[in-house]
């Protein structure tokens, strides 16, 4: 299984996303079982955020990991822009930690840029890491210009990862962002790695070329989409599934090695960008 190293921690390249989980009480047992299935298949990363269901996703994760040894987990959460200030961030983090039932998160991300000065947000992210409530901090929905601005701050280069939308149908980050991050040793976390709702009016999982490659590997289309994402250097994918069987399949996609011919087929169907594109966000 491919791995990614974030702030010195090596983790499997496919983790578990939790967006839209925890919202429906009748699905709680199934969603917890899906998290357990993903972990049993070899996942270690669970990605969540205070925004997801106004804390309900974190609460669900807390229930799911209650009996899981802490060293078998790599927990990521995120702070909302409105809470990313010196006066509010620690309170937000404490609430996240309480919902998760842990003393610290492994990675705490600034969810997207808001009105609070970046210098203030970064200083507080670093302070919370220094006092031990997070092991590392990072950013999300940042493009190259945002990262260049971040790198000018005293603690900016201490960022441990950047999380953005990336999948076969949304390849804009390949033009310059992935290269910038590789040059600056900043790992990339891909959200919506098998496609985003309504994206380009396409359905990547039913695309004939994706299915053609999947048949070669006796895999599902979604496994191929994930294998493609994590074939990029230092890229972690965080697919979300509330189905235990699909959660397991997602994680096992990390074992699939695409061939050069596979990549040619996928590149022809969904070409790489030839110019800088606006950052896709959800």
UniProtKB/TrEMBL annotation:
Domain NADP-dependent oxidoreductase: 13-269
Amino acids binding substrate: 111
Site (described: Lowers pKa of active site Tyr): 78
Pfam families linked to this entry: Aldo_ket_red
MF annotations from Gene Ontology: oxidoreductase activity
Catalytic residues (UniProt): 52 (proton donor)
Domain of life: Bacteria
Listed name of the protein: Aldehyde oxidoreductase
Species annotation: Secundilactobacillus pentosiphilus
